[in-house]
Amino acid sequence: MQLNSLGLDVNKTEDLKRDLNNLLANFQLYYQNLRGIHWNIRGKRFFDLHEKFEELYNDTQEKIDMIAERVLTLGGTPLHTFEDYIKAGKVPVGKNVHQDEAAVTLVVDSLTELLKIERVILDESADANDEGTNSMMSDFITEQEKTIWMMKAWLDEKI
After folding, report:
1. What share of the chain is helix, strand, coil (3-state, %, to 5)?
2. Which residues fall in a coiled-coil region (predicted)?
3. What number of H helices and E strands is found in the chain?
4. From CA 25, how far away is CA 68, in angstroms rounded?
5. Residue 25 is inside which H or E element, if any?
6. DSSP E strand boundaries for 50-125
7. How many CB atoms sit inside 10 A of residue 141's CB?
8. Residue 129 backbone phi and psi in degrees, to 5
9. 3-class DSSP state for residue 9?
10. Measured between alpha carbons, how far is 129 from 150 in angstroms, rounded to an integer?
11. How far, in Å, CA of 111 to CA of 48, rounded?
12. 30, 55, 85, 131: most buried by Cβ count inside 10 Å?
């Protein structure tokens, strides 16, 4: 087994870089969804949702940077074109979403897809003994599960 300067298995790190780039691409799509629903939300719940979506996209922008920096830390190159993002996309694309329930459902559906990717990375990072990636995924998962719970409560739906 060949180790890199971080003490991680080079082969396992390749898988992590690939999957982190996949997560990065999907976070970029989620970010665009959030910007779109922030700009286009209408109705009686406008003020609350407009503010909430801004909070979510600011948080997402920070996570995007964290993911890209983790790819760099592991010796990779972060994806950085919309072409790459679309190719890797699993997160649903929300176009012209302006109704409150549709917007919140888009957030839930997007986070559900991100969680699937993060759980794969969590397993891989545990297997690679990559505590940096593992910790980041654990934090993301915990926060996103809570957001899904809150959004589902807002929708009056069960988890």
Report:
1. 75, 0, 25
2. none
3. 5, 0
4. 10
5. helix 10-40
6. none
7. 16
8. 60, 35
9. strand
10. 32
11. 20
12. 30
| Separation of alpha carbons 68 and 75, rounded Å | 11
CA distance to 14, 56, 84, per residue, from 143 (Å): 26, 11, 26
* Strand, helix or coil for residue 7: coil
Residue 149's identity, in one-letter code, is: W
Q: What is the pLDDT of residue 1?
A: 87
Say how far residue 16 (Cα) sits from the centre of its chain: 15
The one-letter amino acid at 119: R
Per-residue pLDDT of the chain (159 residues; tens, 9 = 90+): 899 999 999 999 999 999 999 999 999 999 999 999 999 999 999 999 999 999 999 999 999 999 999 999 999 999 999 999 999 999 999 999 999 999 999 999 999 999 999 999 999 999 999 999 999 999 999 999 999 999 999 999 999
In terms of C-beta density within 10 A (0-12 exposed, 13-18 middle, 19 or more buried), how is residue 113 classed? middle
